[in-house]
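Obj.: predict assembly geometry.
Materials: sequence records (below).
Method: joint structure prediction, all chains together.
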Amino acid sequence: MMVSSRGRYALRVMTDLAEHRGEGYTAMREVAERQGISLKYLEKILPCLVAAGLIEGVHGKGGGYRLTREPDRYPVSEILRLTEGDIAPVACLDCGTETCSRSAECRTRPMWDKLNTLVDGYLSSVTIADLMEGPQSTEK
Amino acid sequence: MMVSSRGRYALRVMTDLAEHRGEGYTAMREVAERQGISLKYLEKILPCLVAAGLIEGVHGKGGGYRLTREPDRYPVSEILRLTEGDIAPVACLDCGTETCSRSAECRTRPMWDKLNTLVDGYLSSVTIADLMEGPQSTEK
DNA sequence: TAATAACCGACCTAAGAGGTAGGTAAGTCC
DNA sequence: GGACTTACCTACCTCTTAGGTCGGTTATTA
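Observations (raw C-alpha cells):
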C-alpha cells in the first residue's frame, strides 16, 4: 500500500475546505462530521499542512481553517508528500535514505525510477479542483 | 511504500534465475550469495511462486529452481501480485476488501482508480527479460 | 548412507498504522 | 471579565506488518 489513511484523509479535508471556501473559516468539527472521520485524528494530521503554509487556522469562536490558494493550485502530490513523508513506491528511492549499496549493479533500479516518475507525474497533474467535481455532484 | 522487500527480492531472484537458465537447476544458496540476501528469508518467499507454477524446484544434490517460461513471458505485475498479495496504491481498491461504504460519494475514488490503472499498466509492460539488461551488463 | 537442497512451522523484534484521552493557548461573544 | 469555542500539543494505547532467525523434516542423488 502506497497511501495510508493519513494522506487520504488530508485530501478529503482539503477538498471539503475547498467546497466550503468563501464561507470564512471552517471548523474541523464540521469537517470531521461531514466526512465521518474522528476529530481527534484530524487534529493530528493538520498541523503539518499549516506549517507548510497550505492552510491557515484561527482560534476561537468563528474560527477554523481556510485555504491559502485557489483549489487548482494544490497538486495532490504536494499534499501527500507532506502528510505521508514520501510517496516513492520502493524504499530505495526515498529521499533521505542513503543510497542502496547495490544500486550501481541493481537490475531493477531503472524500473523503480521510471515507476516513480510515472506516479509522481500523475499525482502532480491532479489538483484539489479536480477532486471537487466528484462522482456525485449532487451535494453542494 | 507500495512494494516491500518481499516483492523486490522475488524480482531479483527471478532475474537471477533467468540469467543462469540453461545451466540446469540453480540452488537458492548460490542466488542468496550472489544477491546478498539471507537464504532463510528467500526460502519463505519462493513457495508461492512454485505453487503458482512460475518456477519449479527439485530436491537433493544438483537440485534447485528453474523457470518454466521464457523470461519475456513474466510480467513484473504478476510476480508482485503473488508475493505482495496486492499492489493497489490504496486500501479501498484491494480486491477482497469489502467496498468502502462511502465509495459512491467519495471525491477521491476516481483518482485512485486511474492511478491504479496507470501503475498496473506499466508493471504489466515490463518483464523479467527487460530487467536482465541492467545498468551494468558487464557481469555475465 | 551421507550430503545436499527444497520445504515447513514456530518464534522474535521493531516499527508503523490508526487511533484515544486530556490538557493548554488563543481568540470571540455577551 | 468570564464563558465558550476552537486550534494546538503531548502522551499513550492496540494491532498488524515487515523483515527476519532457528530448527527441523522430506526428497533426491552421488
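Conclusions so far: The two ends of chain A are 32 Å apart (CA to CA).
To do: check interface contacts against the pulldown list.
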